[in-house]
From TrEMBL:
Keyword line: 4Fe-4S, Iron, Iron-sulfur, Metal-binding
Keyword Transmembrane among UniProt keywords: no
Annotated 4Fe-4S domain residues: 10-71
Protein name per UniProt: 4Fe-4S domain-containing protein
Length: 76
């Protein structure tokens, strides 16, 4: 499947959105600027947002989930 991001098109067969989604807090708080955590992870997979926009992933106790999302997204 091909996606378009701000840098053009790229093929992304490696990112499983639901696999990443399961590590998000699923609060749908909208603090990241998106209507839901699923919307956030969709835009994250398209390189349209930054993992740090999810304030709840950065909270104490969520380090494991934060690192899992970073790993799946291949973020250093």
């Amino acid at each position: 499947m091909f996606y378009e991001n701000k840098n053009g098109f790229y093929e992304n067969n490696e990112v499983d959105l639901m696999e990443i989604y399961k590590y998000l807090p699923k609060l749908d708080c909208k603090n990241c600027g998106y209507q839901s955590c699923l919307s956030f992870v969709t835009m994250l997979s398209k390189d349209e947002t930054n993992i740090n926009k999810c304030i709840h992933l950065k909270e104490k106790g969520n380090e494991y989930n934060f690192n899992k999302v970073k790993s799946y997204m291949k973020i250093d």
